[in-house]
Amino acid sequence: MRILHILDHALPLQSGYTFRTRAILKAQMQRGWQVAAVSGPRQGAGDHDVETVDGIDFHRTQPGRAWPSPLQELNEIRRFARRIDRAVQAFKPDLLHAHSPVLDALAALRVAKKRGLPLVYEIRAFWEDAAVGNGTGTEGSAVYRATRALETWAVGKADAVAVICDGLRQDLLARGAAGDKIFVSPNGVDLNLFGAPLDFDAPLALSLGLHGKEVIGFIGSFYDYEGLDDLIAAMPALVASRPAAHLVLVGGGPMEAALRAQAAASPVAAHIHFIGRVPHTEVERYYSIVDVLAYPRKRMRLTDLVTPLKPLEAMAQRRLVAASDVGGHRELIRDGDTGTLFAPDDPAALAAALAALLADRGSWAARRAAGRAFVESERNWAVNVARYAPVYQKLIDSRASGDSWHRSPVNA
């Protein structure tokens, strides 16, 4: 079986999007499937038309000149479709697998129709809701409604649709999408890459002044919807009840300057540490020195519908997890078992939940074990990737070939 993945961006860029992509492609390769990918013009200019990164072949799409919207998006779709078509000629796939945003699906649909290939469209978040969450869009605006309509249209045209969580599936069903072509491929962790927790990194803790402290951590991107302002606002109350509590923020993003200013003005500024971005190869060192990973996402459509990846990584690292009680977190966390849930948009509730968790050390071992077991059994990519097999095979078998390309059976 030969699968061509169609991506907004990919390795060597590092993001939650590229890490999920890598996990999917590597797990499929381990099953014996032949895999390649095409990255879109938003990857940026590169030196190579095709390059291999981490054992995966990526066909690159060079960006064109900038145009005002919507001409920019239309031009990107045209350029991307031409590049996908060239990759199809070179790789000769049995199936196309496009990953959101919807521009990727629109480009892939052109090629699928031209080449008579089945298309799986995978939605990780609705583009219009992601724009609202990132502060670049407004819910209910003309652009929001147009993007939503395009998404619904693309779902109707694709042969099968994968979503990362049940929240997205239910939303599509409410739009009238056919339920028999939608399946859930949840976020997971590649335990071969990110599976063995490191021992406590004492030198790192000492260098940050955190040895012997109670460490709350966040590792990820600093977007407004992540609720990091609520986490910083919770720190005075937390430190009042737990004087050894410190907060470590690893990463960066659009809210970084505002968050740093907020932390500097806090009465417990000495308990708040910004690390900045670190190489992905160094992330596990920071997990090793954190007691509790906090995910205080704000309540909005994006966070209610979409499950994040970071809490799963924390569970895989046998870290305690505390998260806001929004829909995306409820699909991952069983309160009091695999993690702790607290009211969203409420710094006082966040501080109280963290203080109670820090005070209850007797439960830590069981919670860490439960979180790790959940990832191993239900969110391990070696297991998750099997969800694609029957969908791929059904689409390939039902499509009259009409050509000489070899279509091999799925490896069980």
TrEMBL record:
Residues 16-188 form the Glycosyltransferase subfamily 4-like N-terminal domain. Gene3D superfamilies: Glycogen Phosphorylase B (3.40.50.2000). CDD domains: GT4_WbuB-like. Pfam families: Glyco_trans_1_4 (PF13692), Glyco_trans_4_4 (PF13579). InterPro entries: Glyco_trans_4-like_N, Glycosyltransferase_grp1, PEP-CTERM/XrtA_GlycosylTrfase. This is TIGR04063 family PEP-CTERM/XrtA system glycosyltransferase. It comes from Sphingomonas hylomeconis. The lineage of its organism: Bacteria, Pseudomonadati, Pseudomonadota, Alphaproteobacteria, Sphingomonadales.
